[in-house]
Amino acid sequence: MVKVLAKFKFSIVIFVVVLLGIIFISVLPAQTQQPVVLNLLMTAPDAHPWKEGIIKDFESKNPGIRINIIEGPNATNLLEDLYTSAFILGDSPYDLINMDVIWTPKFAAAGWLLDLTDKVTQSELAAFSPKDVEGGRYKGRLYRIPMRSDVGMLYYREDLLKQAGFNPPETFTDLIKISQALKQQDKINWGYIWQGRQYEGLAAMFVEVLEGFGGFWVNPNTLEVGLDRPETLKAIAFLKETIATGISPPGVTTYQEEETRRIFQSGQAIFLRSWPYVWPLANAKDSPIRGKIAIKPMVSASGENGGACLGGWGLGISKTTKHPQEAWKAIQYFTGEEAQRRFILKAGFVPSRRSLFTDPQIVATYPHYPQLLEVVEQAVLRPPIAQYAQTSDILQRYLSAALTNRMTPEAAMKAAAQETRRLLGDV
Ligand code: GLC
């Protein structure tokens, strides 16, 4: 009996040892296995809302994957330079690529991105605004899934306009007239604030004014260049007039988005041209203009349509990533409905999924979003061509020279048009 008991105890010990061994073998590697880290570079203002919620959500649903956000400079063209030099050096340290809508043709043509065409069905893509999807294609293939859209618009001080008995402006002339009147009454320091620094934001702002005067920059189908046409000169004349008449501060030619937002938000200006990210910040609890502002599509010359520049950001995958599956998983999550809703409620960005423009939760926070869909769907794309970065650089240099009186607008635009034609192979 004692013997049987001893044998039984012995087998229990063996069983427990084996069991512990199995547990040890299966659990240990899982514990010591490092999670896959996906590196993602983005502008600093974007990084904040990303870090606030959607990254944590994704990581808790996918414990084996970590997202490492690297904060870059605010200007999109500087960010693009960082990505570009990383790709040119070979082994890009970035797995996911957070891409401005204007980068796809260049990055895709250079072969730096994975082709995502076969990963999404037509019906999945139909849930997004068509222009945002278009911004992710190159030569019929898809390289970028839209994460958020963006569109330029005119912010104005509804309170001041109402007090002075003005309707919101429809034309460039209205905008100047209202600005002058309110300035003369000492109601405000500045009339109109816009992005005038030599950088990509200048090009985005300018396509709106150009469209508003009936002009064009580069026709992407024919590569025709419109910079030396009379409409372009009218657009420059309008911007110069805002400075010459003191409606815009002389420093406006050095401002990017954030400088312009700060002036407007501190209550010093009537009008601001910017993107939707300004809305929640200008309406934050500590904002002096909270509840006093409204937005409308950009004004135009009478008889023309106002132009709204299509911006926006989307995700692509670097061709050299060692983790394409995990990167795709992340893209699916971040461009999905749930993540986008959270992101937009936090940051006031524009959705790329059409259903979110009328989503009850979103509309409760941003009542103007249903109308915004129309503006997004009619927005003007900056020319979607592989040489966009150089094309934009030419415009930025010469436009800046004209705005700061280093060249006459005529000479500047003649040179800009010629250089652009040479670049696009048409001279
Ligand atoms: C915004 C837009 C982007 C544009 C940039 C210009 O980030 O989304 O498309 O290029 O502003 O400053």
**How many individual β-strands?**
11
User: Structural class from helices and strands?
Assistant: alpha/beta
Distance between the termini: 105 Å
Spatial arrangement of strands, main beta sheet? 2-1-3-11-6
| Helical run tally | 18
Helical fraction: 40-55%
What are the bound molecules? alpha-D-glucopyranose
> What would the principal axes of the Cα set say about the shape?
globular
Q: What's the Cα radius of gyration?
A: 26 Å
What percentage of the residues does DSSP assign to strands (E)?
Answer: 5-15%
The parts where pLDDT drops under 50 for at least 5 residues are 21-30
Average pLDDT number? 92
Q: What series of H and E elements makes up the topology?
A: HEHEHEHHHEEEEHHEHHHEHEEHHHHHH
Descriptive report:
By secondary structure, the protein is of the alpha/beta class. 48% of the residues lie in helices and 14% in strands. It is built from 18 helices and 11 strands. Strands 2-1-3-11-6 form a 5-stranded mixed β-sheet. A 4-stranded mixed β-sheet has the order 8-9-7-10. A two-stranded antiparallel sheet has the order 4-5. α2 (44-61) runs antiparallel to α14 (337-347) and α17 (388-403) packs antiparallel against α18 (409-423). The longest helix is centred in the N-terminal third of the chain and has 31 residues, at 2-32. The site of alpha-D-glucopyranose has 13 residues, from α9 and β11.
